[in-house]
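pipeline/complex-builder :: batch 7 item 3
reading input block
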Amino acid sequence: MFRNIDFDVAEREIVAIVGPSGCGKTTLLRCIDGLLPHDAGEIWVGNQRVEEPIAGVAMVFQHFGLFPWKTVFDNVAYGLRMAGASKAEVERKVPEFIKLVGLGGFETAFPYQMSGGMQQRCGLARALAVEPNVLLMDEPFAAVDAQTREILQFELLRIWDERPTAMIFVTHSIEEAVLLGHRVIVLKGRPSSIHETIVIDLPNPRTRATLREPRFAELREQVWGTLMREAREAEFVLER
Amino acid sequence: MTIGAIRRNAPLWISIGAGVALWEIAGRLTSAAFMVPFSETLVRLWQLITRGEFLVQLFDSAELFLTGFVLALIVGAPLGMLLARVRLLRIGIEPYIMTLYATPMVALIPFILSLMGFGFAPKVLVVFLFAVFPVLYNTVEGARSIKPEMIEVAKSYRSTEWSLWREVMLPYTLPYMMTGVRQAIGRALVGMIAAEFFLSSTGLGQLIMGASQDFDTAGVFASILVIGLIGVGLTRLGLMIEQHFAHWRQ
């Protein structure tokens, strides 16, 4: 599945991963989360080797992964409770993180009552509530509409500013990768490997103004060029 | 009741009224050996109730119904969860479940009679057999339909197997289980009457049988009316239970 994938993520670094469809971006993330076994190579988080899901790593899912029978409060509390948090801790932390993602007042709402954007805010709060060192984002905004996606991108930047973690952000969107990432890793092909790593030397914090900077456009073009070469090759390969 | 509600329900009430009227007329036109009018049925029902006999039989039936039904729930729900989770067990047992679910349970009654005789236990077994398969079947299907993504979320948050059951599998399966419960209520009622007919005669079943043997047509109709109303009531209750647990399933 993978060949020669070797990269590090620093403590307060956002690494965005882009690549053509089917290149295994999501699979890679699930390996890092310990959900999928990897038979060769090693994955380390801090000084802990990943063989199964470990504490300190939390994932935000493309499909939100909320439990539809739980309220916002109970969904956000889920990760904490699984981590063995005491009742008092849950009562104290959950409202804090619900507020952090902008869902204050919706504690008793159920997922089916909420828009996609609100649901993903809830998914984000659940992941943040366990106070992870590493946040794994699996195309988290792919299932929401374009406007909501833009809002959520800047919300994520704001939240990350308040509580920076290491983050691996898998996305289809080049714009999103360049806006969020301190580095963008372009994956290619099958078996997938790292095609190129592009350092995004845009100033922090990233804001809406970042989108208007000439350097942003340059970097976007650079990633686009790299990716499109791959995408074109990938598109015209027949399944064996 | 608002005007709107009255208007919405008008067809229902008109229909019920017409049905009662038709019953009344048909009862008056035919011989009392076949059918009695609605009014006479009500009078007879009142007599049965005031003589106390009716309530005794009703409690008898209720005891049988509840024992068999609760047993079906206690066995059906956990077994269903287990079968959904343990593949080998499911493959081994599923054909039997499907066969028994499709078999008209009444056909088993002679066998149960010869095996267990006329006591309370064989009757409970009949009610149990009528009720258990809808619970079992719906629970298995429900628990199996859980999306792998949800289990993955649980795994990602380092859920233990026990927590996975309690926090994810069970709440997800409950609405399906309750669909089974709703179906089981109706079937258990049929099982109850069948058991009371064909095994030792007790309860509402005996009331019908007894009245029929005495050519007490009014008594037969009064019992049938009550059983029908109980059936409607229990089905409504089943629907309410089902909806209560399924509010998030949209």
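note: Chain A has a mean pLDDT of 88.
queue -> next item
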